[in-house]
Amino acid sequence: MHKVFASLLILALFAGSTAEAGVKVVTTWRDSRATAPNFSKIVIAFPTNDTSLRERVESGLARRIPRSVAAHTFVPDSELGDREAIKKRLTDNQVDGVILLRLLDVKEESLVSFGDTAYVYPAVWDVWGLPMAVSTDTYSTTLKTILADIAIFSASTGKAIWVGRMKSTDPKHLRELLDDLVKASASELKKQKLIQSK
Length: 198
Fold this sequence. Notes:
Elements: H1 2-12, E1 23-30, E2 42-45, H2 51-62, E3 68-70, H3 83-92, E4 97-113, E5 117-120, E6 132-135, E7 139-154, E8 160-169, H4 174-191
Parallel strand pairs: 2-3, 2-4
Antiparallel strand pairs: 1-8, 4-7, 5-6, 7-8
Helix pairs in contact: 2-4
């Protein structure tokens, strides 16, 4: 089910976008009981049934994170929804950390810019009559807001250590958005001292 949703979400993202993509981290959560992780092998996961996008995102993030490997190199698309198969793959490949990047939602907001109206009095005696109204055009713009999460998990417990919610407004293209998400994710994980610099 989550794979179908991801595909529909990806298809819905980019009809008529006009602005530059900009990714911001808007909220974060950290398990106060967890110590700073020192994983020996981290798997990077971007669950979607679009194989080329999955490979692009996972490989892009793996290049930026030390001791990490893209999930598609050993977890096939057919097992993305299979909990036990994924657990076995992680164990067999001696993975102790997981970084998950996931697109969550697309929200659309209509912004209306109302035109200005000026009242013109051609002559002083027109004050006693109705003034002539001159108005500029009214414009309506639809903005898309895309939400995504970046999360780091312990593979041994399956529990999240840290989660960051990211927001992008009106990205032009899907690949541009995903590349920006990858860069922002790696930067934030380093800032939070959850991974080392490469």
